[in-house]
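FAQ

Q: What does a record look like?
A: Structure on top, sequence underneath. For example:
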């Protein structure tokens, strides 16, 4: 629909995909260019990542989380964290294994295991009493017993965050029951209002059960470069290393060298990226509030998770998103795309600049003010098209 509307000349303001719109910081690009001019870097690279990048990544865990990671045995570079998540799932899953995955969730959390023929059981995303009650139930009633649980905080799509006490409880539970934990920390550096998200690996004994994925994509605006990491439990890292040794030769060496320069170099570029998302968040959330749409202000991630306004709730997220696109020229991600428990919501990514965000807010306002006419017209149009 978006492509068709654009082809017809509509200016669609697009909050749909979490694709960072800012250029990668110049010093990182410069390092890539410098390195690519050295023909020695043109051969096959190293599938688990060049040593310099694994060391730079371990140094990041040390300074940011005070966690020491052995770059040889406890860390691996991936082709973006998505690739790592999917390949770890296929490395450790046998058909019929029970894996606990939040719903709604970032799609690869479910589908990595579905592709590996696991039996995926849903758990809630909100890190409250219901979450642990669901884990208890899953352990009591699943046959076979759950093998792994996937968690992702700060969360995509809901922007939910957790504190270290939550991770302590998870580690305690999973060590007790012999369940592995896969933690996705893709938004480790995209946080607002001063609370850096913790890592599960900060918990004593976490490495007995947990592996954690992080990514360069959002932190340094490097989504197209495809560099991510996994760290933690040695058996899981070894399994991922083994399967990747069959599948790939690692990212192109100049990309890995530039990624190491990003981690070792000046970090003020992250402050700028964070400040930009925060400014957009405030424009969007305050603007929508003024338009009569109350959306919780996310504490982290680059997403707002917006409950569908009551007048449209009966439509579900897909129909509501289609209406927003056709009538307000604003694209959002329907919550159903993240699982059925997301259907009462749409996700807005903070990827449009503040001027276009303001423009979007104005059209959403007139869309909401005329909702009965909007619904009536849309139904008429649909009837005519039939
Ligand atoms: C929760 C989460 N995990 C992983 C990814 C993928 O990151 P990468 O670009 O490192 O594959 C994303 C991207 O949107 C994400 O939101």
């Amino acid at each position: 629909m978006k492509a068709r509307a654009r082809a017809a000349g509509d200016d669609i303001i697009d909050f749909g995909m979490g694709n960072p719109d800012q250029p990668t910081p110049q010093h990182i690009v410069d390092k890539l260019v410098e390195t690519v001019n050295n023909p020695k870097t043109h051969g096959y690279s190293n599938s688990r990542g060049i040593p310099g990048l694994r060391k730079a990544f371990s140094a990041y865990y040390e300074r940011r989380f005070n966690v020491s990671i052995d770059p040889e045995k406890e860390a691996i570079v991936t082709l973006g964290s998505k690739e790592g998540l999917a390949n770890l799932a296929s490395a450790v899953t046998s058909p019929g294994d029970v894996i606990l995955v939040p719903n709604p969730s970032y799609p690869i959390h479910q589908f990595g295991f579905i592709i590996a023929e696991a039996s995926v059981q849903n758990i809630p995303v909100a890190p409250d009493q219901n979450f642990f009650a669901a884990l208890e139930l899953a352990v009591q009633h699943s046959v076979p017993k759950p093998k792994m649980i996937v968690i992702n905080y700060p969360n995509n799509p809901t922007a939910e965050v957790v504190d270290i006490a939550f991770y302590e409880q998870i580690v305690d539970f999973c060590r007790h029951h012999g369940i592995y934990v896969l933690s996705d920390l893709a938004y480790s550096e995209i946080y607002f209002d001063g609370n850096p998200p913790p890592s599960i690996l900060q918990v004593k004994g976490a490495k007995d059960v947990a592996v954690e994925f992080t990514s360069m994509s959002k932190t340094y605006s490097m989504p197209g470069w495809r560099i991510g990491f996994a760290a933690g439990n040695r058996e899981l890292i070894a399994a991922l290393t083994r399967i990747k040794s069959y599948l790939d030769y690692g990212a192109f060496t100049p990309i890995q060298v530039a990624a190491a320069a990003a981690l070792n170099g000046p970090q003020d570029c992250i402050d700028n990226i964070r400040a930009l998302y925060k400014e957009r968040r405030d424009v969007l959330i305050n603007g929508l509030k003024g338009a009569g749409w109350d959306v919780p202000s996310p504490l982290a991630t680059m997403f707002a998770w917006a409950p569908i306004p009551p007048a449209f709730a009966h439509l579900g997220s897909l129909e509501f998103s289609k209406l927003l696109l056709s009538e307000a020229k604003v694209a959002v991600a329907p919550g159903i795309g993240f699982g059925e428990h997301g259907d009462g919501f749409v996700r807005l990514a903070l990827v449009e600049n503040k001027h276009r965000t303001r423009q979007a807010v104005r059209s959403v306002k007139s869309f909401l003010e005329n909702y009965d006419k909007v619904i009536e017209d849309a139904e008429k149009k649909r009837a005519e098209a039939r």
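Q: Is there anything notable about this one?
A: The domain at 26-264 is CATH 3.40.640.10 (Aspartate Aminotransferase; domain 2).
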